[in-house]
Specification:
By secondary structure, the protein is α/β, with parallel strands linked by helices. It has a single domain, classed as Spore Coat Polysaccharide Biosynthesis Protein SpsA, Chain A. Helix content is about 45%, strand content about 15%. It has 10 helices and 10 strands. The strands form 2 sheets. Strands 3-2-1-4-8-6-9 form a 7-stranded mixed β-sheet, with helices on both faces. The protein has a 3-stranded mixed β-sheet with strand order 5-10-7. Strand 2, helix 2 and strand 3 form a beta-alpha-beta unit. Helix 9 packs antiparallel against helix 10. The longest helix is centred in the middle third of the chain and has 17 residues. The radius of gyration is 17 Å and the shape is globular.
């Protein structure tokens, strides 16, 4: 087993099949063969058919009772047998060349890990402006989204995902991984040409411009009403369909 792909999932029966379809294509395209890829669905206390779908598709199902995205990622990692860990959200679809791109990136002793990046399944002016807001942060930090990957030993050295965080656990993990690499003269990689396709379900539900009032509201709640901030986080990131 070479690569373990971890998918945190809570009630993702609607999105999981299309992700698994894309994983199957990428695994068949992998130079080491499909048997070198392990797919783990970290079932985060789902009440729908998420676990059944995963088992029917040959995935390992790791049950994680605590409703936390960070806990689900870590639970999947604990079940992993691969030398390389990769993580992707259940509402994405991965590129056919993903696993070979990860292989090439980690073949360099100067790379500690990285992320493939992501594009959106549809576009509008509001989505393009919001996406554009994120691009400079990616350039500045070297951190991206999509399929996040690293060697299993480096995942453990970075401490895994911080389960104290309800959100932004992915940013915190890449920051920790970056620090691990910096001590050895390593960097984060962003392989080209293998971006995931991310769903726009939050925008479909809340509107294509909703991120712009959302961000200052979160900052205001963080500064003045931390209890209300947690309720807002739960409604936005942990609602039933997630």
């Amino acid at each position: 087993m070479r690569i373990s792909l971890v998918i945190p999932a809570y009630n993702e029966g609607g999105y999981l099949p299309r992700l698994l379809d894309s994983v199957a294509v990428a695994a068949r395209s992998y130079s080491r063969g499909p048997d070198a890829v392990e797919t783990i669905v970290a079932d985060n206390a789902s009440t729908d058919a998420t676990a059944a779908i995963a088992r029917a598709r040959g995935c390992v199902v790791a049950r994680v009772a605590e409703r936390s995205i960070a806990a689900a990622r870590n639970g999947g990692a604990r079940a992993a047998r691969g030398e390389i860990l990769a993580f992707v959200d259940a509402d994405m679809r991965i590129h056919p060349g993903t696993f070979d791109a990860i292989e090439r990136a980690l073949a360099s002793p100067r790379v500690v890990g990285g992320a493939t990046g992501a594009t959106l399944e549809r576009w509008s002016l509001g989505l393009a402006v919001t996406y554009g807001l994120m691009v400079p942060m990616t350039w500045i930090t070297g951190m991206d989204t999509g399929v996040v990957f690293c060697r299993k030993a480096d995942f453990e050295a970075a401490g895994g995902y911080d389960e104290r965080r309800r959100i932004a656990e992915d940013v915190a993990f890449l920051s920790a991984l970056k620090r691990v690499g910096r001590r050895r003269g390593q960097r984060l990689a962003r392989p080209r040409g293998v971006k995931c396709i991310a769903s726009t379900r939050k925008f479909d539900r809340h509107g294509d411009w909703h991120f712009w009032p959302l961000l200052p509201r979160l900052l205001w709640l963080w500064a003045f009403k931390p209890a209300a901030l947690q309720r807002h986080i739960d409604r936005y990131w942990y609602e039933p369909e997630r």
